[in-house]
Amino acid sequence: xxxxxxxxxxxxxxxxxxxxxxxxxxxxxxxxxxxxxxxxxxxxxxxxxxxxxxxxxxxxxxxxxxxxxxxxxxxxxxxxxxxxxxxxxxxxxxxxxxxxxxxxxxxxxxxxxxxxxxxxxxxxxxxxxxxxxxxxxxxxxxxxxxxxxxxxxxxxxxxxxxxxxxxxxxxxxxxxxxxxxxxxxxxxxxxxxxxxxxxxxxxxxxxxxxxxxxxxxxxxxxxxxxxxxxxxxxxxxxxxxxxxxxxxxxxxxxxxxxxxxxxxxxxxxxxxxxxxxxxxxxxxxxxxxxxxxxxxxxxxxxxxxxxxxxxxxxxxxxxxxxxxxxxxxxxxxxxxxxxxxxxxxxxxxxxxxxxxxxxxxxxxxxxxxxxxxxxxxxxxxxxxxxxxxxxxxxxxxxxxxxxxxx
Length: 406
Description:
Blueprint: H1 3-6, E1 7-8, E2 11-15, H2 21-24, E3 26-27, H3 36-46, H4 67-83, E4 87-92, E5 94-100, E6 107-115, E7 119-120, E8 129-130, H5 140-147, E9 152-153, E10 158-161, H6 169-174, E11 181-186, E12 193-199, H7 202-211, E13 222-226, H8 228-242, H9 247-252, E14 257-264, E15 272-273, E16 275-280, H10 286-293, E17 298-304, E18 308-314, H11 318-335, E19 340-345, H12 350-355, E20 361-364, H13 373-378, E21 389-390, E22 398-399, E23 403-404
Parallel strand pairs: 7-8, 8-13, 10-14
Antiparallel strand pairs: 1-6, 2-4, 3-22, 5-6, 5-12, 6-14, 9-23, 10-13, 11-12, 15-21, 16-19, 16-20, 17-18, 17-20
């Protein structure tokens, strides 16, 4: 399939003038899942102000709220934002994003719409847009309950493009003074700064992306970096809808196109950070069983209150380290239903989280290099789920741009 169809210039919705952007934009819902105090502090800061906080379901709240009522409130809020023009259509365009974080002076991205017909999260597909990690199917239904009744989407998905010559997004940034600046503000919770420029000459941008595939046989244009499950949810929602549409209605239905931010794999502002594991309510056999499988030269860390810190070798092959550890955890959870696992961004929180639980084990994972990523995905491989994170937790995408999906 041609990328000329893979990409679409969407009608983007942004908050109207006067909305406090620092309160409006909040971090991706799947961050700080074991640190509910992050979300409680954010909730206090925002109050009743218009905010994407009221449009999303923080995963930290999943165990502590009535899911059905929470989702109903989300959809009521979105409807009210449309009726009161809190969200305004700024026209058909792309948004060039300039982000600074506590860890990176500058990270560039481009908000576009992608055709979900050209995306698959199934291993072995040859679509122009592919998942990088295995999809946990039971994580889709809760997200689907929100999306199937929501009139708009507000995404946190980041997709990577393989552009070592920096010929697309960076070239737009060089011309940024030619484009209207549509937002410029500080992010809450120490997330850094965000600035956005409106790009209306979208056809030339799409053509530039198309040329990145010259000489490449595998046809891989985008690999999903963050938000695998959110994009998988959008795909599932579209498949459900299109089953009841006529061929003509399928061509331009708004749910067919998902809003994402594209980032160059070679942008200096992104690094691949490891995603660590904390396994709760385990028995004394957990650590010895894992140690028996791990071999290698890269030292990680295993920690529990009982054992303290244990330096542990990890395989030199990063994907293999994740495969061994994740397969072991999955098998252990199957045999021990009372055990659970959480995925932690940032090694600095690992020991702290494990210390709060009597029978928890923290596992520090190695960081993957980004040089091999596209090659790995292009050869029909999928990394174990939660194998890498694009930056630290506070560097994740903040919800801001919206698009209608009905």
